[in-house]
Amino acid sequence: MNNYLSLTALFALLFSFSFFSYSDSEKISAYKIDTIASGLGVPWGMAVMPNNTLLITQREALLSQVNLKTGKLTSISGLPKDIKVGGQGGLFDIALSPNYSATHWIYFSYNKDVGKQGATTLARAKIENKALVDWQDLLVTQSISNRAVHYGGRISFDNHGHVFLSVGERGVRANGQDLMMHAGSILRLNLDGSTPNDNPFVNNNKILPEVWSYGHRNPQGLFYNTYSQQLWSSEHGPRGGDEINLVRAGHNYGWPIVSHGQEYNAPIAVGEGTERDGIVSPVKTYIPSIATSSLIQYRGNHFPELTGDLLVGALKAQHVNHIDLDENNNVKAENRILRSINGRIRNIIESPEGWLYISTDDGRILKVSCSKTSK
Question: Which residue, 336, 359, 365, 367, shows the most beta carbons closer than 10 Å to its own?
């Protein structure tokens, strides 16, 4: 009898939590999931083109273009030969320049082979006749390592002539606080790869001038909201302790001094606690870890219950993590949606129509729209 009551109470609690999570939304979308492409490698980044096609980077150093009407896949040639593939390394993100219609620049991040080691690198190129042309390495970051982990590699733009690049600490914890390295930092550059003269450390000869923020472990999500002019990141913690951060210029995000995670080989905390003066605390932590990947702040109205909220891909936990924010960017609720995708969520982007395109580590590209809404 007691067991029955306990289970009944548990189900009631879960039901009430689920209802409360969406209680501020007038309508909840019925998600419609269509497979746009499959059989790819690890589709790491996506960019919607003006001609109703989708560019897809594959970590295996491949670039493809899929026609969103017909599903036809086309290979794009011209990638550099020095993309170093292995472990977590390879070809990473892709993003159209904010002034793409005038310049046709497409931005890429990748692991560049530098003396048989790897460095997270920002580049740009154009497409002509199914081939990349005018390839330019804009910044080969000072993150060279023979460890094939923690590259970061996400790209975002602020629409004021700047591009942001996340760089992981490459598996070397001390890099997170070493400001004469790019590893463990989020960088801010002009669109041509030069350093903005208003970067926070540009006049400090003890800090690399491209550094915008530091103390990051492995930020694989990066999104600049051009309406609020705020930069968000999601990053992998150690065992537990994944983070979502609201990134501000010149601030320290703590790795490895503070952390919410534990060592992989023992239940021992990493760092010297979870908070410290002078270090910015995360907006959200995940204990246990969900293995965060990319993130966006949804700005459309196709899914009204998501507007203004964060959507984070979960690799290990295999869902889209919906973080319901209030007007002060405080977390009201966490909802785990789109579990039926049944795959490691690598990338999420929002289409001009307000749909979602999602890539999974098993090589699928999915379009998420809604067929109806319900009260």
Answer: 359
